[in-house]
């Protein structure tokens, strides 16, 4: 720590944090506004169903993701079978798939009019829907499956790392004391991986809560879609804000659970990992089962939807390969790059102050700034628009006071609102990755640097920045892909007439013609793959 | 005027008092060891000197310049101190040359180069300027960190457990080598360690810490032979504590018999118990004797000497002896040679 | 610092790019841009006035309200009447006086206070499976009848087209009866409301249901799409309630915004949109019924036959809009 750190750093940190937390506060204020009884009407009629749907969906997706991810993580971390090296990172690919695209593709396949049911009808000569039972794709359960398919890699990644970091000697001890590998798994590995699993589950739950497009497409009304409908359908921002606060309560409960579970993480973390030689080499039927499990998972969660997407793109290439397509791609790239750069710059400042400041109060800004990640895009949009609109009017009032023609809606009428919302939502990622990188830098480097007459700014530029570059890069990449994918906030906050790839694809999904947007969807997926591959490589290097 | 002067320094962090009213003065070219178990506050004091730890009370000055106290706080980057860390704190993204020259400012390119050469020669790392820290051994890294902290000619050098990561085989040699470098350049240094052996080898003076205050400060010999209290005595070496009764002006009675002092005893309590006498294991001699006052109950061979545990009456005493031939069960006569007598 | 600087420049550039040039007309449209682009291009050619169209499926009224006097919007185009009513209710539109428009649009298709104008008519039809039901003489009321149990498909009840239909039911039968009808309708559904009108026709083709409600122009669009033609071919289009009050008609329309920066040019465009040439284009591109009586529907639309429209004035529906929304929630139509 730097005892001589001037208070201006602290002040700057608090100002930045205040700006980033502003949407949350605005939302709470908005929720207290009168809403012409819209909320009480919802409360009396559909709200219980919305809440029920939201909670059950979260529960199902978490359970589903755990069931999918734990065996995969265990196989990859602790067993050896053909293809293990490839599956290790291939199983991350589904993360790059937006859930609503997977949902669309599977609806196309499994709906009543889809090829699967058509084939069945032909084979068994069924006439109509009353002759047989087939589960509804567009249902709560269907949505849970789709979301599990694309969200399980969060848990897989964390569980895999946890399993790999469990030291061989512990397992040997357990083995020596007469526990077979199955019992060792239940009594040792799984409980030790619990903090990591909790973090994964919390992430999955938050992503589920934030999902808009999948449930919208499946006509499963949740709190997220309700916020959207209440705002735009009923035209009541106040009622939408009230719904949003309910949603935030749920989400902060999840965050609380995660914090609670992570409390013990230190206890379990070990430096020594598992040795290569300690992996069970699978043979015969076990090997087949393992390979088949990973292959089928990969096929369902990524390969099949992606291939179908490519098929769409090829069939409708002429219509999709247009100037518009390039415009939307550029919009997406430009917004994502801008957001990544902003997030990195701001988080670097916040985390630096936190690192070197001797004042306990300086830990607050980066904590506050990180809360944005928990706020779903639909909810955040309300929180962003309200204060920015006031600001816009304020700016124009100032111009008017000087008898000048105002600049119009500089904030809400431009991509500013969008960029701001994305920063609020994703800055936690860069804060997290930079904080993690900082943990690798010994504090004595700071002390060495300042005793050698370097100012705090010098310390940041000459020592920290070069050493943090990997963490910064990883964080920026993740923010980039998230910004490419983020839909609800983009949908609600884009300047009118502005489209990026995500809103463009969503429009076609909701018009039931994804075929025309397939090319854009492929770009989103491909851009999403880059950071995943990078992330995995750096993880492997660490191992 | 002393190089470093610490007056009544106290420090508290999160409501816990870490340093209590410390006083310490250091002359130019002296090496002082801050010695004590972990958590005693020795590192805190070192950091306070560097300006890395808040001081709640008292004054710290170097060469007469006030750094802390009376409302003054000079930030670390303006203190002109050099610091060497337990993990060496070499910048992993910089070469040896860049590391060494990190704190050097205001020199021409030519001067910088000659400073680098001078430093590398000093620490015997010629030819390694272009290497990165991870390409060096632990000892070499240590020497780079020394070179780095001497390169910008600080007023005082602060060393935070710098040898604890060095292999015990070469540690002694390393310490002597660095001590020689510091002496050669007449550098004043404050050295933190928890090992009395390191302190004895490396430092001129010891300041033994106990719960945030200095239990005793002085030359190593003084502390060893004239400990002010039992804590100091115990920290610096093993010892037997034997209850003694004053016999006359020069003699006390104990289970070992009469023990003589060369100087007159300060008490005037003939016939009364005056306390416990400190007897270091090497201050006792054993003679094989059938009617001796003790029996050997344990024996450990430690290379050049033997460590014996001898039962005398109800008491067990530890004796370090060059006599290697004694065995468990044999009766021995124990005699003590003490000068002067330390009685607590 | 270089990084910071370039970020600042990028940010400023994006602000500049986001604000529209002042002289152009700005149209906020609930209708897809491609439908009106050709018409607007022609308008620009004729008058030299450039038009920016920005499309949004949702939330335009909310947006204009929030933008207030700073809103760049001049004209709003909507795809149904409830959006027009919403604009009026929120006091976001300005009345206009134009003899041209009044001449082009019959009085039942414009607001009595001149705050909005209809552009096209769209009938809410009932499609029936050619194979299983044949052509029907059907009423909306029959959607709740037990004979169609498990055989009806529809999009979300909350969609403006359906809300308007429910509002018209309330207007004719009162709230209590309408609610009974809506529950019966829901009980008859073959599946949970989902998809758009097109998807309902597809479901009939696949045999998932036998009747579906949908706007007539979707049929025209499907016939024009090679992949969807077979869906359209599998259904008959039935004009409901022909024996009594007539079919429920919704309208697409336009309104001038209250704070329009270019009112004069905006009125010019609105006049143009009601002109025979623009109306013809509308009718052809989107298979809708033009409101300008001088313009005939396209030959395809004409081939569906004449129909009798519900005489209830459009603005009357507005009174029941909120009630219809609540009714849909009360019977949990979409859940």
Instruction: Give the fraction of residues assigned to helices of chain A.
Output: over 70%
| Number of helical segments with 4 or more residues of chain B | 8
According to CATH, the homologous superfamily of the largest domain in chain B is P-loop containing nucleotide triphosphate hydrolases
**What form of chain A results from the Cα inertia axes?**
globular
Number of domains of chain A: 2
Would you state the CATH class of the largest domain in chain B?
Alpha Beta
**Distance between the first and last residues' Cα of chain A:** 30 Å
Give the structural class of chain B. Answer: alpha+beta
Radius of gyration of chain B: 25 Å
| CATH class type of the largest domain in chain A | Mainly Alpha
**Biggest sheet architecture of chain A:** 2 strands, parallel
Radius of gyration of chain A: 25 Å
Beta-strand portion of chain A reads under 5%
Strand percentage of chain B lies at 35-45%
Low-confidence stretches of chain A: none
Please identify the oligomeric state: heterotrimer
Mean residue pLDDT of chain B: 89
Distance between the termini of chain B: 35 Å
Strand order of the largest sheet of chain A: 1-2
How many domains of chain B? The number is 2
Protein name (chain B): ABC transporter ATP-binding protein
GO molecular function (chain B): ATP binding
Domain ABC transporter (chain B): 4-236
Keywords (chain B): ATP-binding, Cell membrane, Ion transport, Iron, Iron transport, Membrane, Nucleotide-binding, Transport
Commentary on this structure:
The complex is a heterotrimer of chains A (543), B (344) and C (335). By secondary structure, chain A is an all-alpha fold. Chain A has two domains: 257 residues, MetI-like (MetI-like fold, Orthogonal Bundle); 274 residues, Orthogonal Bundle (MetI-like fold). In chain A, 76% of the residues lie in helices and 1% in strands. Chain A contains 25 helices and two strands. The model of chain A has no long low-confidence stretch (mean pLDDT 86). With 344 residues, chain B is α+β, with helices and mostly antiparallel strands. Chain B has two domains: 232 residues, 3-Layer(aba) Sandwich (Rossmann fold); 99 residues, Nucleic acid-binding proteins (OB fold (Dihydrolipoamide Acetyltransferase, E2P)), CATH 2.40.50. Chain B has a six-stranded mixed beta sheet, with helices on both faces. In chain B, helix 3 packs across helix 4. The longest helix of chain B has 17 residues. Chain B is elongated, with a radius of gyration of 25 Å. Chain B starts with a strand and ends in an 8-residue tail after the last strand. With 335 residues, chain C is an alpha/beta fold. Chain C has two domains: 168 residues, Periplasmic binding protein-like II (D-Maltodextrin-Binding Protein, domain 2); 147 residues, Periplasmic binding protein-like II (D-Maltodextrin-Binding Protein, domain 2), CATH 3.40.190. In chain C, strands 1, 2, 3, 4, 5, 6, 7, 8, 9 and 10 form a ten-stranded mixed beta sheet that branches. The radius of gyration of chain C is 21 Å and the shape is globular. Chains in contact: A-B, A-C. Chains A and C meet through helix 12, helix 17 and helix 19 of A and helix 1, strand 2, helix 3, helix 8 and helix 15 of C. Chain B: One of its GO terms (molecular function) is ATP binding. Chain B: Pfam families: ABC_tran, TOBE_2. Chain B: This is ABC transporter ATP-binding protein. Chain B: It comes from Shewanella intestini. Chain B: Keywords: ATP-binding, Cell membrane, Ion transport, Iron, Iron transport, Membrane, Nucleotide-binding, Transport.
